[in-house]
Design brief:
Pathway: Cofactor biosynthesis; (R)-pantothenate biosynthesis; (R)-pantothenate from (R)-pantoate and beta-alanine: step 1/1. Helix content is 38%, strand content 19%. With 284 residues, the chain is α/β, with parallel strands linked by helices.
Length: 284
């Protein structure tokens, strides 16, 4: 596995892989890898000859009161995990390598950047779009794989790629979960024992909604919110139900697939989760 800390070095490696006739599958990460990330690597390997990972904690997607300095990091452990997965190359830039002095160009999808998590975290999705665009430009992948846990991010990136005619196919991968149902996240390690014991309520609330059809979008929001409110450690930031394709707001009876999106804080750790609800689908 080639470790490439600079843009020049990763471009050289991409050129070498291309010269060997290989297609490129990209998996962008912020590191501190877990099984969910490794599943993304395996999914990329199903769709491309060579998997390229990136490890970069992107400062532009963190707000001034967010946890950039406390985001967990363990590069050597991450590299060992990627080697075991057969990843061909990993791009590990510093912030100074990614953002040149005076750089202020940004990428945005205004219809999606100010809603849901974007409303809770102003500027977050501009930071995501800008860094993902840069990573696509640097690595020129054929496909890129993102997890469905970050459902709004996945929809955002798909629209960005479509609107800007980026020549990369975006593949979503189902949310990876712990045995108790908690969605895997690098932030989970920051939960206290009591918070970690309480956090699976997100999945429990979503699973209950999935298997108990309700007459309206509003009823789903009420039911999920009431379920979460049973746990005193939950600080509910957002419970929303949206169209599963374009994330437009829904009301009344559901006539097409919808996604329930949660943002819940446990202390200063914000967790997200999601579930697609399909009207008329047998949920028994």
């Amino acid at each position: 596995m080639q470790i490439c800390p600079s843009k020049i070095r990763i471009r050289q490696e991409i050129t070498r892989l291309r010269a060997a006739g290989q297609t490129i599958g990209l998996v962008p990460t912020m590191g501190f890898l877990h099984e969910g990330h490794l599943q993304l690597m395996r999914r990329a390997a199903q769709h491309a000859d060579a998997v390229v990972a990136t490890i970069f904690v992107n400062p532009t997607q963190f707000g001034p009161n967010e946890d950039l300095s406390r985001y967990p990091r363990d590069l050597e452990r991450d590299l060992d995990l990627l080697r075991a997965e057969g990843v061909a190359a990993v791009f590990t830039p510093s912030p100074e390598e990614m953002y040149l002095p005076g750089a202020d160009a940004i990428v945005d999808v205004p219809s999606l950047s100010g809603i849901l998590q974007g409303a809770l975290r102003p500027g977050h999705f501009q930071g995501v779009a800008t860094v993902v665009s840069k990573l696509f430009n640097i690595t020129q992948p054929d496909v890129a794989v993102f997890g469905e846990k970050d459902y709004q991010q996945l929809a955002f990136i798909r629209k960005m790629v479509r609107d800007l005619d980026m020549p990369v196919r975006i593949i979503g991968h189902p949310t990876a979960r712990e045995t108790d149902g908690l969605a895997m996240s690098s932030r989970n390690v920051r939960l206290s024992p009591a918070q970690r014991a309480a956090a699976p309520i997100l999945n429990a609330a979503l699973t209950h909604a999935e298997h108990h059809p309700l007459p309206s979008a509003e009823a789903y929001v009420t039911q999920v919110s009431q379920h979460l409110a049973r746990e005193s450690l939950c600080d509910i930031k957002s419970v929303e139900i949206r169209d599963s394709e374009d994330l437009t707001a829904l009301s009344g009876p559901l006539h097409r697939p919808a996604v329930i999106l949660l943002a819940v804080a446990f202390g200063d750790v914000l967790l997200i989760d999601q579930r697609v609800i399909t009207p008329g689908k047998d949920s028994s």
